[in-house]
Amino acid sequence: MAIQPRLIVTGREADGTSVFVTDEPGKPVVVGAIPGSEFYLMWGTEDGTATVGTTPQQPKLFPFFPGAGGTRVLFLRWAPESSAPEQLADPDELAAEAEEKLPGLMGVFEPDSPGMHTTDTVDYGICLEGELHLELDNGEEVRLTPGACVVQRGTRHAWHNRSDKPALMCYILVGAERVS
């Protein structure tokens, strides 16, 4: 049975007592520009320094990639490349849909190198189901299987599901400043 993403958030009452604030299933977001894939946007923090306390907080989910000090956590179910539906819509319409549903995501992708992108984030990617290949710009690849954790440090890369089954990854993105 496939993992179903679920969000549980804790908080504090005014008197300091710990409580569960949220316990709900993740809701998939699909975009035609990445056919067959499901994004589960779970939580994020504002850029800068994260805070905790009794003040209720709402997740900061957009833009898709956090700025320096901000965070995002998401699950992404990757469809097998062999069975992903074709992109039938106009490319401009697909880009507009993706920008509406996942603001900031598509702007990092290179039009002349499908799937290749670079972000100013440190990403912790954990393979939960299936398998996924991480390709770097020099053509080297590594195959991730359940239990593999990759630390993606702002390098140019692409993800590929070359298997015949969906792959589920959990990504924790931490906004970073790029330095030489």
How does this structure look, described?
This protein has 180 residues and is mainly beta. It has a single domain (6-175), classed as Jelly Rolls (Sandwich), CATH 2.60.120.10. β6 (132-136) and β7 form a beta hairpin. The chain contains one helix and ten strands; from the N terminus they run ββββαββββββ. It starts with 5 loop residues before the first strand and ends in a 5-residue tail after the last strand. The protein has one helix at residues 91-101; strands at residues 6-12, 18-25, 38-45, 71-78, 121-129, 132-136, 141-144, 149-153, 157-160, 167-175. The strands form three sheets. Strands 3-4-10-5-8 form a five-stranded antiparallel beta sheet, with no helix packed on it.
Net shape:
globular
- The CA-CA distance between the termini, in Å, is 45 Å
Low-confidence stretches: none
Q: State the major sheet.
A: 5 strands, antiparallel
- List the total number of helices: 1
Give the name of the CATH superfamily: Jelly Rolls
Subunit arrangement of the protein: single chain
Q: How many domains, in number, for the residues?
A: 1
Rounded mean pLDDT is 95
Short description:
This protein is mostly beta strands and 180 residues long. The protein has one helix at 91-101; strands at 6-12, 18-25, 38-45, 71-78, 121-129, 132-136, 141-144, 149-153, 157-160, 167-175.
